[in-house]
Design goal:
Helices cover about 70% and strands about 0% of the residues. The protein is mostly helical. A two-stranded antiparallel sheet has the order 1-2. The longest helix is centred in the middle third of the chain and has 32 residues.
Length: about 500
């Protein structure tokens, strides 16, 4: 069973999604809820087991149909991929629980779509082949198109049109880039491409550069990098709360892909192709944070504010990608975990506020009070502290690690100001939004909507992870440093292939 661990994070949501579309599970919503929650829990257990195995025994390559790389389809489970896989599984479980409180009554097929979305995200993290990365991108995007429109409404429809149009354009560019890459490298296996990068014939170097820059555009679009970010705030701010929470990790797929391609294939050992994206990433990362700060200060709703803070976190991570040192990568991984959990938490809290605040929803205007001000106020405060990066929440450690990495690389003058200004902007806006949502009230709350136990369980799971990241900060930082070291050694090191006696 252990030899098949790398494929389980994909197989579980695939089978669960298909089975939930068929009788008898498709017959009642209650069966879908129970089955979906059990599948999400099983996926989380499988990913944690995979992470433990990889951390103890090293990276694993899973060759589909026993076709060995670079010819067959392979899954690569190393420390970075399994870390992202566990994070995805945890988010899926929380979102699944939250959806069981009534969100799934607003439209059909929510639970199967969540599974297919998780399938695409897990596949993007675990694949070892660029073409299969494109395939899993399409899987997660197709599911996200339907999830974004869940519940209907003109705002969601308009946001979905923009979202679909831009991502279809990105998919077309991705295909062009893959054609160029295959023509110059003769393979799309990422480990094999890394071995060949330094030996590309001179006549093909410029062609390979164009393919690499096309991939930068594609991954920049997926990660909401400036100037390709404008689709994201609107889409995330109108999406249902559990959908937006799961979307919190989608921008990280773009960051992860940048690491895999531009820090590994086109890394220091790529000869003439080495670090070709660095001159572009520096200004784009910096401007992404600046645009995110401005948009944060101009936000009119809590969900829009949270979406704009996702852009700020993307810019911070891009700065660490640009530094491309072991310390920068390790600190970025810690901060990536924190920012994903914190933004997902705030999206869920915003969903609770919307359900209790009437027509005002989460807009920063005077309105009737929420039905449970003490509970929602406490949850909002914890999520706000996490997003700001205030001690003792894990965001403080993540930002401190990034600042330390910048200092060690002698780039503090470029990196410290935007990160610190982003924290200040978050502090100002979250303080303003909290005072407006919970203090600027009039009349009495006439609604009977209360926080459902399933919703509270999902939110509390995310809340608990933030102090746990502080308690286990030593182990997590050791793990992220080891993951960063794996990336510098690259995918070209010998990996274990289950069932291969010669490995």
């Amino acid at each position: 069973m252990l030899q098949h661990l790398p494929v389980l994070p994909l197989l579980i949501p695939l089978l669960a999604g298909v089975l939930m579309l068929m009788p008898p599970i498709a017959g009642t919503l209650q069966r879908q809820r129970v089955f979906g929650t059990l599948a999400a829990l099983l996926q989380l257990l499988a990913t944690i087991t995979l992470l433990w195995q990889v951390n103890q025994h090293g990276p694993i390559v899973y060759a589909m149909g026993e076709w060995q790389p670079p010819f067959g389809i392979v899954l690569v489970a190393d420390r970075l991929a399994t870390l992202m896989s566990v994070l995805t599984a945890l988010l899926l479980l929380c979102v699944q629980l939250f959806s069981c409180a009534g969100e799934d009554q607003k439209g059909k097929f929510l639970h199967p779509l969540l599974m297919f979305q998780a399938l695409g995200i897990q596949g993007a993290f675990l694949t070892g082949d660029l073409f299969n990365l494109f395939v899993f991108f399409e899987v997660l995007l197709i599911a996200s198109y339907a999830l974004l429109i869940h519940g209907g409404g003109p705002q969601k429809t308009l946001a979905n049109v923009h979202y679909v149009t831009l991502n279809l354009a990105g998919s077309a560019l991705f295909l062009f880039a893959l054609g160029i890459m295959y023509g110059t490298f003769g393979t799309l296996n990422m480990a094999d491409m890394q071995l060949r990068a330094a030996h590309i014939v001179k006549s093909d170097v410029q062609l390979a550069e164009s393919g690499a820059m096309l991939l930068l555009v594609v991954f920049g679009l997926k990660s909401a990098m400036m100037p390709l970010h404008f689709w994201m705030p609107k889409a995330y701010s109108v999406a249902p709360a559990p959908v937006a929470a799961l979307f919190a990790i989608m921008t990280k797929v773009g960051i992860y892909s940048l690491w895999r391609v531009h820090s590994t294939i086109f890394g220091d050992g790529a000869g003439e192709l080495a670090n070709i994206a660095q001159p572009w990433l520096w200004p784009l990362a910096w401007l992404t944070i600046v645009i995110g700060i401005i948009a944060t200060l101009a936000s009119k709703t809590l969900r829009e504010l949270t979406a704009n803070m996702v852009i700020v976190s993307v810019g911070s991570l891009l700065l660490m990608v640009t530094l491309n040192t072991r310390e920068a990568t390790a600190s970025a991984l810690y901060y990536l975990i924190h920012s994903t959990l914190a933004t997902a938490l705030m999206f869920l809290v915003a969903g609770l506020i919307v359900s209790q605040r009437g027509k005002a929803e989460d807009r920063f205007v005077q309105a009737r009070p929420v039905a449970q001000p003490a509970l929602l106020g406490l949850l909002f405060m914890l999520a706000a502290l996490a997003l700001i990066g205030m001690p003792p929440i894990s965001g403080f450690i993540g930002k401190a690690l990034m600042l330390k990495a910048a200092l060690a690389s002698h780039q503090a003058g470029w990196i410290w100001p935007p990160i610190l200004l982003a924290s200040l902007a978050a502090l100002l806006m979250l303080a303003r939004s909290g005072s407006t949502l919970f203090w600027r009230t009039r009349g009495e709350n006439a609604g009977e909507v209360k926080v459902h136990p399933a919703q509270l369980t999902a939110v509390c799971l995310l809340v608990i992870t933030l102090p746990l990241m502080v308690v286990f900060a030593g182990w997590i930082t050791e793990y992220t440093q080891a993951a960063a070291q794996d990336m510098t050694r690259s995918l070209s090191v010998p990996l274990r292939i289950p069932g291969d006696t010669d490995a």
